Structure formats: structure tokens, C-alpha cells
Amino acid sequence: MVPVTDSAPLDVDLALLGGGGAASLLLAALDRHGVRDLRIAIVDPVRRRGQDRTWAFWGHPDSDLDPLLSASWQQVEVATAARRRVLDLTPLRYAMLRSGPVYDRAADAERRLHATRIVAPAETVRDDGDRVLVGTGDGRGVRAGWVLDSRPRPPTRAGRTTWLQHFRGWWLEADRPVFDPTRAVLMDFRTPQPPRGVSFGYVLPVSDRYALVEYTEFSPDLLTDAGYDAALAGYRDLLGLDPSVLRVREVENGVIPMTDAPFPARPTPRVVRLGTAGGATRPSTGFTFSAMYRQADQVARALAAGRAPVPEPAYPRRHRWMDAVALRALDRGGVGGPEFFDRLFDRNPAERVLRFLDGGTTPAEEIAIMNSTRLLPMIAATAGDAVHRVRDRLRPTRPAPAIPPAVVGSAPTARRAGPPSGEDEVRAR
Ligand SMILES: Cc1cc2nc3c(=O)[nH]c(=O)nc-3n(C[C@H](O)[C@H](O)[C@H](O)COP(=O)(O)OP(=O)(O)OC[C@H]3O[C@@H](n4cnc5c(N)ncnc54)[C@H](O)[C@@H]3O)c2cc1C
Q1: Closest listed residue to residue 275, CA positions, set 127, 158, 148
Q2: Residue 268, class by beta-carbon neighbours within 10 Å (0-12 exposed, 13-18 middle, 19+ buried)?
Q3: What is the pLDDT of residues 343-370, one digit of tens each?
Q4: 135 lines ligand 1 (CB under 6 A)
Q5: pLDDT band at 407 (very low <50, low <70, confident <90, very high)
Q6: Which strand ranges, in their side-by-side order, compose the sheet holding 75-79?
Q7: Does 46 contact ligand 1 (Cβ within 6 A)?
Q8: Cα-atom radius of gyration of the chain, to the nearest Å?
Q9: How far is the CA of 296 from the centre of ligand 1 (A)?
């Protein structure tokens, strides 16, 4: 790491504002693609380390991420009150990656790239079209050829639908084998459904005694702390897990935007936004990881070839439109969430649905996907969306609502998984 000493702005080729998920994947990609001759600065008031989140994503096996994975599954389960469906994801697989190894690999890359770390917030960004001047909280500033900005930020205006994916997970350790490590539960809609929104549980087993069990809602409003605990305890009971043989080792919380609001990826000529701030979060699911990974690779390849570090859009435009319609149909009550996802998986190969959610399907496949939803509510949502878009054109300055920060992270704990509050018995590992 190069120490910051004098007060002239630090001159670099590339400044990364934000050093979280998107930046960590980018640093690793730059290293992987042999980029060595760039001057790089990373500006973040926090140096990300350890386990503050768990990424679940799907993709092809044998990527450079494989050595970092905690677990992966060829089969996943999608459950509704009516049935439990086991899906074979071949040629894809579902995988779990904890943040610790990702941040460690990024730290190694940062050293090899001789990057400068500025542990302060980036406060102002001024792009004159030739260089970008970044004001930093330590008073020195950075002058960069390109800025890759992944600082969390609200969209530029309110969405036509604004939901949140909000969740709590328990890392559960059991005294005896209780989990099936050969398959993950992707979505289990047998949880009680909220009045407005969708809820589901999921299970990511690392072994027959250790798993991440989460309760998730796609809905406009957050729950209380006790509300998440109660919902998660309810899901644990629904799985038939006996709390007396379980200990909660860590708790993971998160809030991710699900909205058709715009997150401009190129606000000025030399500023590129990545991660959630750049639109990598898929509005209909909150999944973000695969798009961040893809874009990190594209940026690194471009830089290695001496080109501008501008990735392709996180998702094709038509996918963002389809997501806007789906979110609207779910929000306005035209379509029930469990039914919507159940039909998608019932009428399409799982691999096609997952590729669709990553933005990788052809228009013909997308017609098949659209045909698997209920027609009338989707037509109503499409019409409503079109009217709303016209209104937005006529009144483009609708302010954006505050979206809660996308990060709550995870905290280690050690308690019995019985009662859902902090009164639980605390037991050290
Ligand atoms: C608990 C949790 C679990 C998740 N699980 C999944 C999952 O399973 N699958 C999936 O696809 N997605 C998941 N996501 C969504 C998404 O993948 C993550 O939020 C991901 O970390 C987003 O990366 P990012 O770089 O956009 O933001 P972050 O990783 O949040 O990084 C943003 C960085 O900006 C820094 N920052 C803030 N202000 C400033 C400033 N003024 N100047 C400089 N830096 C600043 C922050 O300190 C932070 O390090 C999850 C999110 C959370 C919170």
C-alpha cells in the first residue's frame, strides 16, 4: 500500500469509489487479467474484511470462484403449499460464497496491483470530460482518468414500483445430522404470505449439521427486529427442525432494493457506476452477484486491452421492462408471488429461468417465459406500466424515495435456536 503523505491530489489512472462487493470482484479480475501498469486508488471509509454477507448465485462450474466456494448444489428445491419440486440445474449449479474469501482475494490483488488505499469517504466527484477530480474525506483528493463508483446511492427518481428484498438468516449448527447437503432450498413459499408482497424461506446447507436458513420478504416495508426472528423461527419449525439440537452461530441481515427506478450506469463521460449503484441488482429478485461478477470481468478485459473500462449494461433493456411489469403485477395484487414463481419453474426448464434472471436468454426464450405467467393480470400490468411511463415523460422530476442502505451485514453469535429474541441461552462454541 502506498502511504498518502502530501496534500496534492493523488494522480491515478483508475479510482474505485467504494471497496465492497463490486470493487472486490473487480480487483480480483484486474489481477487475473494481468493488468499491471495502471495506477489505481481505492477510496472507502471501511476496509471490508471477514464474513459480512453470504452470496448465493448460479453459474457454470469451473470458474475462478470455485476454490472460494463454501458449497455448491446441482439440485435445488422450490416449494409451495401444493408441492415440493426438485430441480436439476445442469449445466448450471447453485453456489454459496462467503464474503471473507472474496475480500481476502481482493486484498491480495490490491497488493499485487500496487493500489493506493484511501480510508476515507469520497465526497465529491467532478468530471471535466478529461479527468475526474474526487474530493475525499481526508482532504487530499484524487485525480483520475476514470472513476468506477460503487458507493450505495438512491436512484435518480422514484420507481413506478419500489419494493425491498429484506431478510434475516441464521447460520445453524446442529448436534446431529439434520440437513441434506446434496441439495439447497432455493425458494420455499410455504411461509405465511404478507398482505402485500411475497415471503419465502430458503436453506443453504454446507454439511449435514451446518446450514444458512433464511426468511426473506419481497415487499414495500421492513419488519421489526422481533418480526424477523419470529418469522425465521416459524420457518425453522416448518422445516421440522428441533430447536433444542440447534445453535445459532451467526445472524445475517440484509436489505436490497427491488425497483424499476433508474440507476444510471454512466452519469458522466468518465464515471462508470458498478454494483447495486450501477443497476446490477435485478429488480424482480434482488440477485446482484452474477451481474457484478460479469461486469468486473468485462471491465478488466477492456483495461487489459487498453480500452475504456465500460461494461455492457447489467441487464438488457427488455429484461428491465419485463421486470417492471412483473413487479407491478405483484405489487398491485394481480399475481400472487408463490403462484408466479411456481408457474415459471413449472413451465420452463430451471436452467432457462435462471439464465433469464441473469439476463442471458434469447427473445424466443423470453416469449416462452412470458407465456408461463397468467395472461390477464400481466396484460393489465403492461398497460398500467405504459400509462405510468407516459406520465413520467410528462413529469420527469418525481423525487426518489429513500431506500434503506443495502447493507446490514452479519454478526457472529452463539445461541440456542429456540426462543426468537435476545433472551436466548448463550452458549460459546
Ligand atoms: C447481507 C447481504 C446478502 C446478500 N446476498 C446476496 C446474494 O446471496 N446474492 C446476490 O446476488 N446478491 C446478494 N446481495 C446483494 C449484493 O450482491 C450485495 O449487496 C453486494 O455487496 C453489492 O455490492 P456493491 O459493491 O454494490 O455494494 P457494497 O458491497 O455494499 O459496497 C459498497 C461500498 O461502498 C462503501 N462506501 C459507502 N459510502 C462511501 C463513500 N462515501 N465513499 C467511498 N466508499 C463508500 C461502503 O463502505 C462499501 O464498502 C446481498 C446483500 C446483502 C447486504
Answers
A1: 148
A2: middle
A3: 888 899 988 988 888 888 898 998 888 8
A4: no
A5: very low
A6: 84-88, 75-79, 183-188, 198-207, 210-219, 162-174, 246-259, 407-416
A7: yes
A8: 22
A9: 14
* C-alpha cell recorded at residue 250: 451467526
First to last CA, the chain: 36
Strand pairing partners for 142?
A: 10, 134
User: What is the number of other CB atoms lying within 10 angstroms of the CB of residue 175?
Assistant: 11
**Are β-strands 183-188 and 162-174 bridged in parallel, bridged antiparallel, or unpaired?**
unpaired
CA distance 348 to 372: 8
- Ligand 1 in contact with 56 (CB < 6 A)? yes
Burial bucket for residue 367 (CB in 10 Å: 0-12, 13-18, 19+): exposed
User: How far apart are the CA of 25 and the centre of ligand 1, in A?
Assistant: 11
**Is the beta carbon of 148 within 6 A of some atom in ligand 1?**
no
Q: What is the predicted pLDDT for the residue at 372? A: 82
Q: Is the CB of 136 under 6 A from ligand 1?
A: no
Nearest to 213 by CA among 254, 163, 179: 179
Whether the CB of 20 sits within 6 Å of ligand 1: yes
Bridge-based pairing of strands 75-79 and 183-188 is parallel
CA pair distance 187, 336, nearest whole angstrom: 15
CA–centroid distance, 150 to ligand 1, in Å, is 8
**Among the residues of 92-177, which ranges form H helices?**
99-112
Q: Compute the distance between CA of residue 167 and CA of residue 303 in angstroms, rounded to an integer.
A: 37
Q: For residue 105, give the 3-state DSSP assignment.
A: helix
Confidence of residue 1 (pLDDT cuts 50, 70, 90): very low
AA identity, residue 300: A
Cβ-count burial of 388 within 10 angstroms (0-12 exposed, 13-18 middle, 19+ buried)?
middle
